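Narrative summary of target 7.
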Amino acid sequence: MKISELYKKDRRTLSFEIFPPKREENLKNIDETLSVLCELKPDFISVTFGAGGSANSNNTIAIAKKIKNDYGIEPVVHLTCLSYDKHEIDEFAKILEYEGIENILALRGDKNERLVAKEDFKHSTDLISYLKHNHDFCFLGACYPELHPESTGIAGELSGIKSKVDAGAEVLLSQLFFENEAFYKYNERCKNADINIPMIPGIMPVINAAQIKRMVSLCNASFPERFQRIISKYENNKEALFDAGMSYALSQVIDLLVNDINGIHLYTMNNPRVARRICEGIKNII
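Modeled conformation, tokenized:
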């Protein structure tokens, strides 16, 4: 099923993001994570995509196949393009079609000093435009409520999002944020710019202080004072930080749902306990 069809049914979605484990032995145990996540009946699960490698060696596709075939959940495959040429992208597309995977989150990918950027695709918009000509995928795009780290300002940001939609993106998934007002304001600006496709907020619960500080610096997300107090108070108490971080994330999710947002995309960090806690907290709301 194409993800865009979900939003034509006047219902809200719950979805998860996972990443392929770096170690092969952990990849063999991915079913332990997937079995719990899929028990929670998400509408789809997105699988991140490592830079470099090839279609045959990238574990993203293997996990997406497992999600679809073994668990009956629709996968969304992240596909970056900065380090690939047209031939390599064609190979990825052929494999996805062969495996019956219909949904792609099109991304430029982070710049990496260890990998040479190629010339065929400068932006995710280029990737969508290229694949749209010859393939029948549903394309999702990324958006950044507090602006992309390389953004020159809101006007340029909105222009970039509009270009993705014009190229063929049908759903937007947002980068993480910790202040819902930032998402509401961004969502309204997009609507005013005639960007009217579903925009799904991405929520990352805080369960590791060092990890979240790194993510905030990478993603250009603001660090609200009340959120900083949680980190400061509990960063040396693992269980207390987990409980406080989950409560903060759950309050974000409930507020978003109360305000009639299309759905929630949860960055699980491959932690089923995180997903289960959120689902338990909203089971009578979504």
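The chain has twelve helices and eight strands.
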